[in-house]
Amino acid sequence: MRRLLPSAAAVAALVLTVSACGGGGGETAAPPTQVSDPSKVSGEVTWWDTTRPDSEGPTFQALIKEFQAKYPQVKVNYVNVPSDQAQNQFQTAAQAGTGAPDVIRSEVAWTSQFASLGYLQPLDGSRAVDQPDDFLPGPLSSTEYNGKTYAVPQVTDTLALIYNKRLLKEAGHEEPPKTIAELKQTALDVKAKTGAAGLALNVDSYFLLPFMYGEGGDLLDVANKKIVVNSPANVKAMETVADLISSGAAPKPATTESYANAMTALKEGKAAMIYNGPWALSEIYQGKEFKDKENLGIAPVPAGSVKAAAPTGGWNLAIYAGSKNIPAAYEFVRFMTTAEAQAKIAKEISLLPTRTSAYSNPDVQGNSDVAVFKPIMDTAVPRPWIPEGGQLFQPLLEGYQALVGGKSAPADMLKGVDEQYRGIMKDWS
Fold first, then answer.
1. Of all helices (H) and strands (E), which one includes residue 15?
2. Is-annotated flag, keyword Signal (predicted)?
3. Residue 148: enclosing H or E segment and its boundaries?
4. What is the pTM of this model?
């Protein structure tokens, strides 16, 4: 799933508009925590889903049918909105007070931003939040803003090295690379011995983070309110990315559509390795190289000089504060985030549950992809759950595009990103 986010300028403009005009809705009192007869709950719920409609959407639509069988008086309107458009579309609709869905599948970085703008219904004490102690601490932390809960974790994710076992073996490697140095050599061996590309890079900000974390870098020091993107560690990380390209270990990627290009190259056997997450697996298995699923390898991202680490991602379900169907929306969110629903999602499309109890479900334990990703997820680095968090990716994306396009050296790239961050985080040092 692509993680491109709207530009910082677009988001800033919306924030200014909200400051002048007010938020998208007020707080509504939570209904009773118990519903004696679910079949009596009524209403119409419009849900904006951000999954891939071809490979992931059918599983969620099947869950909707199960929900409607249990809640026959609730109609669910399913709308699939591309993940790189949903944030802006929801903000525009919420600010206008018309056209916003009752429930949105919100990327973890969007949730605190939407809450800060007054667009989300507080969920503490409501039917939407069932057994909060069962949720993994990382995903649960992304649902909170100013001491209140504004969403329920649906799935969680991180990045891994996903590779073609056949191509690595033909290049003389029985095991995936564990360090960046091994990654470079393995990629060069694949290119020399098989003719395929070694590593296909995705020019997307989220996919830069493993390189930064690997050198001990980060974007922000939230505890001390410092911008740290322009650090020696991150300069080293960007030099590593540039070297992978200049050495031929990774072909020079296009600055647009690189996600689709990398996925296609992997599926068709034209590239041996990519960085990607569990959301990509259902699509990858549709490729000719992985009709035999045993040919797909999944491993932790290779370590830099400090560690191996990838970012925490995932998706929450949140309710629009201006919804006219709050009770029905509570029931829908509750149903879609049960351990049983998460087990179905994990079994069919390998998305990682956010509930601890789901991992003991036989359907989850029977999915080898989930079993591989779970320990990788346990070492993932939390991202800053702050209202500005969703604005950090566009400047980094523009810098990444300039780097791979040969228009900016690593140090200059990060200096430019730092300058844009200071326009966003005005009171940070």
1. helix 8-21
2. yes
3. strand 148-149
4. 0.85
